[in-house]
Amino acid sequence: MEIGQVCIKTRGREAGARVVVLSRAKEGKVLVDGPKAKRRQCNIMHLFPTNDKVKVKEEAPHAEVVKVLGK
Predict the structure, then answer these.
(1) What pLDDT score does 29 carry?
(2) Cα(28)–Cα(64) distance, rounded to whole angstroms?
(3) 12, 27, 38, 53: least CB-packed within 10 angstroms?
């Protein structure tokens, strides 16, 4: 998983939501955020990576993530 990787959450309340990875993997978890998902640590086993990538800085603010995913 790389910063800017677009994924789909597969588990939990937010299953099916598109999210962007905002940090590198630490202990099997990454920071994710998206328009229909809260910013939080997520287990990488609960993410389905897509071939899409967006240009976003590490730990970018929520507004920037929503703007980038909207395109």
Answers:
(1) 96
(2) 25
(3) 27
